[in-house]
Structures are given as structure tokens and as C-alpha cells.
Write a structure and sequence with these properties.
It contains 21 helices and 25 strands. With 703 residues, the chain is an alpha+beta fold. It has three domains: 206 residues, Penicillin binding protein transpeptidase fold, CATH 1.10.3810; 251 residues, DD-peptidase/beta-lactamase superfamily (Beta-lactamase, 3-Layer(aba) Sandwich), CATH 3.40.710.10; 81 residues, Immunoglobulins (Immunoglobulin-like, Sandwich), CATH 2.60.40. A five-stranded antiparallel β-sheet has the order 7-6-16-15-14, sandwiched between helices. Strand 24 and strand 25 form a beta hairpin. It is elongated. The chain starts with a helix and ends with a strand. About 4% of the residues have low confidence.
Length: 703
């Protein structure tokens, strides 16, 4: 009985011990599950927008206002990692988060000294404190140990090391080795020298008391201590340490990269959650471009601004971007990205009017046209210099940017059709309030459009008339992300327009680029909006397309500042930075177009013989229904709703494009009528446009 009782007691005790151990382990696992380490600070990182080669263009602060860049051991100099482990945690790869030997040693040293001289913190414990900052006291140290054990249970050593490299403080708002390398040395952590690495190992010990820009002697002494520890650990030699110890410490914190701020902000906004966004910009060229703009500042009018877009026409990638001369300058509204602002283009749309005219066979580069005082109903356009030049060719009219000839051509291709082609190409046009449909003033700036969209059109001119969105991200070696181009005009028409613009006289005091540098000539077009509010210049070279806007962002006039004397000289300075090389071929030029056919040798305003030429000239386009001024009562359908209205036309050449209140309703390829469902009662305007640009409209009421 005694032996049985002892056996039972032993078994019961073992069971109780196992139960307690199991329960304790379960409690630990439950607490670990309920209270995991917080990684919130690791998700609150600075966003870096880099150029196409990976070099930083702009670094944004984190949500907490710090420069906190993600850093990995692979991207950090080996010298820094060796000194860090030698100085902070020599047994980092052996312990499980808490170094028992270091704890015992620290307790003994502190008892002997009668004060705290050693804390026994491992790198993992420091990571725990960086993730969840707290005051330095005994309960906090115990929490660090618990969190360190949790981190070691969840992550491998390299991940924990990366956490430290990302979160370690280096003075002021600078956190992480990558941010520290840029702030103190203006370089990447991958290429730190021994002296630089030693200083960055020392700074987190007391970032406020060791900042080299404020206390350089203290920083140098702390660096020497790190170097001495490295020699003692055998990770560096005495001679190297001695040489590194005499290098001067930095005396100022460098600014973080801040290039192309407007485009960088747009890219950051379009990639929520991304830490690194790779742009299409050429970082070296962008720096040169911003230097040119800085030199331009003294010549700008008071409160004046400018914007520049530079595009590689081969793949439509934006390689240079200026949204404002200084985005920190409030007096110039520098926060506004003027590449995206809608402004009056002046004459900048004329090349595309002529291009469509070539395709429609209503004009030829050699067609003679009269630049004389002409009225189009109540509209009487005049030239910029308030004079007229008589008879000249279409080629000369475009090169001199004369207004009456451009309006004559737009009258024949149809302003509504021209505007619709631009919209189909992805361009946004902003018409003045109250204008229900495009009119002839469209040729001379009677609409607003952005530098971005205009440059997109000129890139299309370089690409044989095919228009597609510009690319702002380096999504692949071939400029991936391409959209199928929309054929705004034929390659032959684009080639004719481009060669004509290559003969445009350069700005006063300058000679064509091809004459001074043996580079191919630049197809140049300038523009000036009404009242000298906007000055434009666009250049198409064999490889690059450049767009320039100069003016006041608030829209006030800049007297005597126009495209040729303000924007064009700046465009030439931008092209001086570019290597055009062998670019996109312009193809056969107007010299190979031959003489104009008999019907296109001359064109005059109001000449009925010079309507758009087609293979079969159909009868005049007209609206059959609705008729102007009619009042329509909506009928109910079988379900009690309103039945759609049938809009019908006769004549014209298909396809027919239908507009309601200036918005496209449908394109009918085979039928001459379409269905329209009114939104409700009210007045409406219907317009139908045929393939030759003829149009007919009617205003009516629905009730």
C-alpha cells in the first residue's frame, strides 16, 4: 500500500507539473497572440520617387514627419554592419533576443559601480524599443525583453537587423541608416566609408548629444570609440582606424533630394502604399533642366511662372518635368503644376488644323491662300501684328502663323469635327461658359488646354500622327504601358506639317539649331493667347519633343511677352541640353509632295468650289428631325417610362457623329438616325457632323 501510494503521489505530481507547464505555455502563447509586437512604425515610411535608373528624385517625410527610409542589410556597406555588431551586439546571431551573458555582466558592473553603467540591450531589444518607444526604467526594460523574445520567435535575424537599420535615430527627424547616409553625407548607405560608417554607428547612442552639426567634437569622440571597439573585435585594422579617426565630421545636415516635385507628388498619390515609385525621368537631365530654369528666374515678370515638358518621342516617356520655377515660392503660386493647368493655346493648335486639311484634301502645302480681311458671319479674325499679308502659300501661312488662313482651313474641315478628333485622341478641351459647340475661334485660342495635352499632340506629330498618352513611369525597358495610338492625322500629313514647321524662323537673335550644332533642325511652333496671358513654344526634333509655357499662373497679362520672344528662346536652351542623335524619321517632306492639283492651287474665303473633296460629293447634310424651334412632348412607353426620341438626318457622307448639347451621343456608320433618351424636360441642341466636317444643328424644347 505504501509503495502504491508513493507511486500515485509521484504520478499525480508529474501530472500536475505537466499541467502547470502546459497551462503556462498556453498562457504565454495566448498572451503572445493577443499582444503581438506593433509594427506600425515600420509601415509609416517615407516615400521616395526615383528616376529611371533608381536614383532618388524626391523624398517625402513619413506620416509622423520624419525622414524614415526603408533600409536592408544587403543595401548597406559591410563596414557599417561589422562595426555595428562589434559595438552593439557581438552575439547577435547566437542569442534568442536576450543575451544572458550580457545581462549577468551588466548586473555585476552596475552593482560594483553603484550606478547604471551598462544596459545589456541587444539589437533585438533596441528594435523592440524603437517599435514601441517608452521611458527608460526597469518595467520598460522588462517589456523590451519580452518583446525581443516575441520578435525572435516571429522573424529571422536578417529581418530584425533590417528593422533596426530602418528605425534607428540619427538626430532630428532623421531615422534609419539610408536617411542618415543621405542627410549627413549625401550618399547611399551602400557606399559608406569607414569613417562615415563609424559615425553612423555612434549617433544612435545619443542622437541629440552627438549631432555633428551642433557638437562636432562629441561626435568625433564617439566615432573614435566605435573605431577602437572595431579594432579590438578584429573587424578593422589599427591603421585604417587611425586614418578614419582624423577625417572631419560633417558640419551640416544636407537637404534631401527635391527634384521634379509636382510630378513626384502626382506619382506618390497614384501609388498609395508604395514606398518607392520609379518614374520615367532622367535624373541627370532633370537637374540640368532645373538649373536652366533657375537662371531664367531673373528674366520672368513679377509673379511670373513657367512650365516645361521634355518627352522622348520614341516611347513617349517624359524625361524632364518642370511644373513651376520654384514650388516653394508662394508669390509665383509655385505649388500649382502648370503643366496640367488649362490655358488658352493661342496659335498652338494650328498645325493640327492644317494636318487635317491635308488629309481631307482641302489644302496642299503649295495651295495659294489669301490673307486678307475676312468675315465669317460676326467673326472677323485678325493677325497678331494687326496687318494682312496678301496671297501666299499654305506652307508660308503656317510658318508665319497667320490667323485668317488658319480660320479658313478650320471652316472647311469643321470646328466641331476638329474638336471631336482632339477629344478622341484623349485631349481635354475647356470651352468658355455658354458655348454649346466649338466655333471658328478654336483656331486662335478660343478654348483652354493644358501644356500636358498640347505636348501629347506634338509628340503625336513626331510619331507620324498617332497620339497616345505620355508615359511617366519606368514600367519596363521598352517603355511598357503603351496605349494604342489614335490616328489624329495620316503619317503623310504629319510629315508635311513637321517639315513646314522646320522652316519656321527662329526667335530673334537665334539661328536654327541645325546651323550651329550640325544637329537636325527643330520643327518649331509658338503661340500667344489673347492679352499676353500665355506664351507657348513647342519643338519636335528627331528624338525629343519639348513643350514650354510662360506666363502668370493667376492669368493676369504679361505685356509684350509672347511666344517667340519669351517661350521660344527657353525652348532652344532646353534643346541645347539634349542629344538628338538619330531619332524618329519625319519621312517624306513637302518638297516631295509635288505641285498642288488644279482644284487646290488656290483657295479663298467663301469660295463654294473649295468644299472638302471626296470621291463622291454627296448632297448637303441637313437635319430632318428635330427641326429648329420645335417643342416635343415625350410619349410614354409600355412600362410607363418616357420613350426615346428618334433623331434623323439626310445627306452628308457617313459616318455621322451626333452631339447633344455639345456632348457626343453616337456615331452612326450605316443609319442616318439615332435614338436619344432625354434626361428630363428642358431645352436642348442637337448637332450632326458628317465625315467631311459639314454640320447641321437645331435648338428645340422637350416637355
Amino acid at each position: 500500500m505504501t509503495m502504491v501510494a508513493k507511486s500515485d503521489r509521484w504520478a499525480g505530481g508529474l501530472f500536475l507539473a505537466v499541467a502547470i507547464l502546459t497551462g503556462g505555455l498556453g498562457a504565454v502563447l495566448l498572451l503572445d497572440h493577443l499582444f503581438p509586437p506593433s509594427l506600425a512604425r515600420l509601415t509609416d515610411l517615407s516615400v521616395t520617387v526615383v528616376d529611371r535608373s533608381g536614383a532618388p528624385l524626391k523624398v517625402f517625410t513619413s506620416g509622423s514627419g520624419t525622414w524614415r527610409l526603408p533600409t536592408t542589410a544587403e543595401a548597406t556597406a559591410p563596414a557599417y554592419l561589422s562595426l555595428l555588431l562589434a559595438y552593439e551586439d557581438r552575439r547577435f546571431y547566437q542569442h534568442g533576443g536576450v543575451d544572458g551573458r550580457a545581462v549577468l555582466r551588466a548586473i555585476a558592473q552596475n552593482l560594483m559601480a553603484g550606478r547604471v553603467v551598462s544596459g545589456a540591450s541587444t539589437l533585438t531589444m533596441q528594435v523592440a524599443r524603437l517599435l514601441e518607444p517608452h521611458r527608460r526604467w526597469l518595467p520598460g526594460k522588462l517589456l523590451e525583453m519580452i518583446r525581443a523574445l516575441q520578435l525572435e520567435a516571429r522573424y529571422d535575424k536578417r529581418t530584425i537587423l533590417d528593422m533596426y537599420l530602418t528605425l534607428a535615430p540619427f538626430g532630428g527627424p532623421v531615422e534609419g541608416v539610408c536617411a542618415a547616409a543621405w542627410a549627413w553625407f549625401g550618399t547611399s548607405p551602400r557606399v559608406l566609408t569607414l569613417a562615415e560608417a563609424a559615425l553612423l554607428v555612434a549617433l544612435p547612442q545619443a542622437p541629440g548629444r552627438l549631432r555633428p552639426d551642433r557638437l562636432p567634437q562629441a561626435a568625433a569622440m564617439a566615432r573614435a570609440k566605435v573605431l577602437a571597439r572595431g579594432v579590438a573585435a578584429g573587424v578593422i585594422g589599427p591603421a585604417a582606424a587611425t586614418e578614419a579617426a582624423v577625417e572631419p565630421v560633417p558640419t551640416r545636415m544636407r537637404p534631401f533630394p527635391d527634384f521634379a516635385p509636382h510630378l513626384a507628388e502626382a506619382l506618390r498619390a497614384s501609388h498609395p502604399g508604395a514606398v518607392v515609385v520609379t518614374s520615367s525621368l532622367d535624373g541627370g537631365f532633370q537637374r540640368q533642366l532645373e538649373a536652366v530654369v533657375a537662371r531664367e528666374l531673373p528674366d520672368l515678370v513679377e509673379h511670373g511662372g513657367l512650365a516645361i515638358l521634355v518627352v522622348d518621342s520614341h516611347d513617349r516617356r517624359v524625361i524632364g518635368h518642370i511644373g513651376a520655377p520654384d514650388h516653394h515660392d508662394d508669390s509665383r503660386n509655385g505649388w500649382i503644376d502648370m503643366t496640367r493647368a488649362a490655358r488658352s493655346p493661342g496659335s498652338a493648335l494650328k498645325p493640327f488644323i492644317y494636318g487635317l486639311g491635308f488629309d481631307d484634301r482641302v489644302i496642299h502645302p503649295g495651295t495659294v491662300i489669301a490673307d486678307v480681311s475676312t468675315r465669317f458671319g460676326d467673326y472677323a479674325p485678325a493677325n497678331f501684328d494687326r496687318s494682312f499679308h496678301g496671297e501666299l502659300t499654305i506652307r508660308e501661312a503656317l510658318q508665319q502663323s497667320l490667323n485668317v488662313p488658319a480660320v479658313l482651313v478650320l471652316d472647311r474641315i469643321g470646328p466641331a469635327r476638329f474638336a471631336e478628333r482632339l477629344r478622341a485622341a484623349g485631349v481635354t478641351l475647356h470651352f468658355p461658359r455658354g458655348f454649346l459647340e466649338p466655333g471658328l475661334p478654336l483656331a486662335l485660342g478660343g478654348v483652354s488646354i493644358s501644356l500636358w495635352d498640347l505636348t501629347t499632340l506634338y509628340v503625336g506629330l513626331a510619331r507620324g500622327g498617332g497620339v497616345a498618352p505620355l508615359v511617366v513611369e519606368a514600367t519596363g525597358p521598352d517603355g511598357a504601358g503603351k496605349a494604342a495610338p489614335m490616328a489624329l492625322m495620316s503619317p503623310e500629313a504629319a510629315s508635311q506639317v513637321r517639315h513646314i514647321l522646320e522652316g519656321t524662323p527662329p526667335p530673334p537673335g537665334l539661328v536654327p539649331l541645325g546651323e550651329i550644332s550640325r544637329r537636325p533642325p527643330i520643327a518649331l511652333k509658338t503661340g500667344t493667347s489673347y492679352g499676353f496671358r500665355d506664351a507657348w513654344a513647342f519643338g519636335v526634333g528627331p528624338r525629343h519633343t519639348v513643350g514650354v509655357w510662360v506666363g502668370r499662373p493667376d492669368g493676369t497679362p504679361s505685356p509684350d511677352r509672347y511666344g517667340r520672344n519669351t517661350a521660344a528662346p527657353l525652348l532652344y536652351r532646353v534643346f541645347d541640353l539634349l542629344d538628338e542623335g538619330n531619332g524618329v524619321s519625319a519621312g517624306p517632306g513637302p518638297d516631295r509632295a509635288g505641285a498642288p492639283p488644279a482644284l487646290l492651287r488656290r483657295i479663298e474665303a467663301g469660295d463654294p468650289e473649295h468644299r472638302p473633296l471626296t470621291l463622291a460629293d454627296p448632297e448637303r447634310l441637313r437635319l430632318v428631325f428635330p427641326t429648329p424651334g420645335i417643342v416635343l412632348d415625350r410619349d410614354e412607353d409600355a412600362d410607363g417610362g418616357s420613350a426615346p426620341l428618334t433623331l434623323s438626318a439626310a445627306g452628308g457622307r457617313r459616318p455621322l457623329t451626333w452631339l447633344i448639347n455639345g456632348r457626343r451621343l453616337a456615331i452612326s456608320e450605316t443609319r442616318r438616325d439615332v435614338q436619344w433618351q432625354p434626361d428630363g424636360p428642358g431645352f436642348a441642341r442637337v448637332t450632326v457632323i458628317d465625315a467631311d466636317g459639314r454640320n447641321a444643328s437645331a435648338d428645340f424644347e422637350v416637355r
